[in-house]
């Protein structure tokens, strides 16, 4: 069996490393020539996606057939990111299934469509306006609001916090195309739920994870999230199941939530394995990467049971694999990327007896300067 | 960091798959042209070992230097089997450390030397004679005895059970060179202990594992082994520590024991990751493969704590990866080898609430005909 993945980053790397032990082979579609492919070097076939025909902005059928051959005729194709060219996926869908399906990726790759989907399913999300000008939006939403590019944002990029009328004027002057403006949510906590749906419709949830960001980038996660009532957990799982079933989803889906009091509000969706699920590599019987692969391959899903309280610490800008930081209860995952400030270059997972001890270890890692982003 | 391993089989494969996530790169020395290299294809550099100079039975210095370069100048070299050419290792030792050291591999690759080492350390093993003729040996040992080639035996090959005077005459007629004859032990159970020693001398033990063989081949293991008194466990760990420290060992060492009543007798040693330790991939915080790599790389060892009762079922002669056999509590490891009867082609690990349930699942796997060797 062979699985192809669009993208050559660390998520593709970790999917392949989870699937290779099962005897599954991998191919990677290098769809972004500005991106380095060091992460997946040696783990399978790497092929550039063909150029689009300029006049029609579509793909030549022959070129797609050649790509499919060059990829080693994969049994299915998946993605490591939502920002992929849907026309490419649609063209490849003539040759093998795409998991999750193109419609699911489409719904998650555009913040406007994502908001609409959530609204249709009665899943709470912050009130928003689409392409309506900041001046207009704040009349209903008040200050502060967040403006976000519909398609360009990740790791906090292409987002604008608008706190004052002059911020609003400034934003409107930028003439951003395709954006939403949403009410800024004063949340108590950011959590995420990572779940997986098999081809037969079986669903498994991981524990809720508490996430901490700095400048829009995830710095660390703790699972399970502390002080979340069971009712909230069940609510999150219910929202997840609505989405997975509505989208006839196959694979891992991540939902980021804001916790406000005892209620949840969806921040965003990711139709793929997710940074806030990296802890599952150590803390769960089956990690998110293996379960994504199992779902794609039509296998029974693996148990998502958690084995211990787990922390995940992103190595952001860390120049070398920090081997000295490894303890008997921690594991290192290094991505083989060229070091650069503010770049995620690896992560450390560790288990501990309770969340308090996990937090202490986070502080130690930060103090050891393993990340350019030090946070207490 | 780069690690080179002598051998291109499934153990090399699983060491690489355990080390790649840490950003460590791998090279493999293909020292046996009759062996296929499918197991490690794509996981690193593969280089043939140079031919020996016929007149001196040694290696040309230039050829060894070229090999070391071609391997990508590894930081250290290890082995996936004890039957490696010591002259090759000794020549490579001029370029980087060999782990475990050549003396340790030498001691374990020859049954006569192994017996001597055990005797020197007062570690019980069955009484034996070296190259002394079966007729002579049975005068002291009585019947039955086992004759074993000193260097050629694995998976029950090159072993002869001698039950009668005519068997003894038959064996002596074979004119085997370099063998031992040992008393046949009527054991209650076969168990093994897998342990790891770091460069700084730290030692960690995995749980004792109960092993089941058929025709000399391991078919399945259960960990922890049932009904082993703590005193026996401590005794096994004590023997292990004597050996590890005596040999200044770095990496994983496996000891196979016979349990006879409340006492232990060493069956054999393996200076490498071992089939009876495969269960650690699912059942332990850190698997034997990762801990071997951590030891080689000079890192802190990972926890060997067991997370659940675990079974390991060898897929012997199974033609296809048995994806249908996967349950939520099991994992498949497939080696990508060409299928052949009596060949180990993969294994399944699974966890269960207790040893009884593990045994039931073993029987189900055997009934599903996943192995040519069916055992109840």
Automatic annotation (TrEMBL), chains A, B:
Its EC number is 6.3.4.18. GO terms for biological process: 'de novo' IMP biosynthetic process. InterPro entries: ATP-grasp, ATP-grasp_carboxylate-amine, ATP_grasp_subdomain_1, PreATP-grasp_dom_sf, PurK, PurK_C, PurT/PurK_preATP-grasp, Rudment_hybrid_motif. Residues 115-297 form the ATP-grasp domain. It catalyses: 5-amino-1-(5-phospho-beta-D-ribosyl)imidazole + hydrogencarbonate + ATP = 5-carboxyamino-1-(5-phospho-D-ribosyl)imidazole + ADP + phosphate + 2 H(+). It comes from the Bacteria. Pfam families: ATP-grasp, PurK_C, RS_preATP-grasp-like. Residues 1-18 form the signal peptide. Pathway: Purine metabolism; IMP biosynthesis via de novo pathway; 5-amino-1-(5-phospho-D-ribosyl)imidazole-4-carboxylate from 5-amino-1-(5-phospho-D-ribosyl)imidazole (N5-CAIR route): step 1/2. Keywords: ATP-binding, Ligase, Lyase, Nucleotide-binding, Purine biosynthesis, Signal. Belongs to the PurK/PurT family. Catalyzes the ATP-dependent conversion of 5-aminoimidazole ribonucleotide (AIR) and HCO(3)(-) to N5-carboxyaminoimidazole ribonucleotide (N5-CAIR). HAMAP family: PurK (MF_01928). This is N5-carboxyaminoimidazole ribonucleotide synthase.
């Amino acid at each position: 069996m062979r699985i192809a993945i669009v993208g050559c980053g660390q998520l593709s790397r970790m999917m392949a490393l989870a699937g290779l032990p099962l005897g599954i082979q991998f191919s990677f579609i290098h769809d972004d020539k500005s991106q380095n492919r060091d992460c997946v070097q040696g783990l399978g076939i790497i092929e550039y996606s063909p150029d689009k025909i300029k006049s029609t902005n579509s793909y030549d059928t022959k070129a797609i057939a050649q790509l499919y051959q060059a990829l080693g005729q994969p049994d299915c194709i998946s993605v490591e990111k939502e920002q992929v060219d849907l026309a490419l996926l649609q063209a490849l869908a003539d040759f093998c299934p795409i998991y999750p399906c193109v419609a699911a990726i489409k719904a998650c790759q555009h913040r406007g469509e994502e908001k609409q989907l959530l609204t249709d399913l009665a899943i709470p999300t912050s009130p928003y306006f689409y392409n309506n000008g900041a001046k207009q939006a704040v009349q209903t939403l008040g200050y502060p609001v967040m403006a976000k590019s519909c398609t360009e944002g990740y790791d906090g990029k292409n987002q604008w916090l608008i706190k004052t009328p002059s911020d609003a004027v400034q934003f409107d002057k930028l003439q951003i195309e395709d954006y939403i403006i949403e009410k800024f949510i004063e949340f108590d906590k950011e959590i995420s739920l990572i779940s997986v749906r098999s081809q037969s419709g079986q669903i498994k949830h991981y524990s809720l994870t508490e996430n901490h960001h700095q400048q829009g980038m995830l710095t660390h996660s703790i699972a399970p999230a502390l002080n979340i009532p069971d009712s909230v957990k069940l609510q999150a799982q219910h929202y997840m199941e609505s989405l997975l079933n509505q989208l006839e989803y196959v694979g891992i889906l991540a939902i980021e939530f804001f916790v406000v009091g005892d209620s949840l509000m969806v921040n965003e969706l990711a139709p793929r394995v997710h940074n806030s699920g990296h802890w599952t590599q150590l803390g769960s019987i089956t990690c998110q990467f293996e379960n994504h692969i199992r779902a794609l391959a039509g296998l029974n899903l693996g148990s998502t049971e958690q084995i211990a309280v787990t922390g995940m610490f992103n190595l952001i800008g860390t120049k070398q694999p920090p081997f000295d930081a490894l303890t008997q209860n921690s594991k290192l995952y290094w991505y083989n990327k060229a070091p650069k400030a503010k770049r995620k270059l690896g992560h450390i997972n560790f288990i501990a007896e309770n969340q308090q001890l996990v937090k202490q270890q986070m502080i130690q890692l930060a103090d050891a300067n393993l990340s350019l982003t030090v946070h207490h």
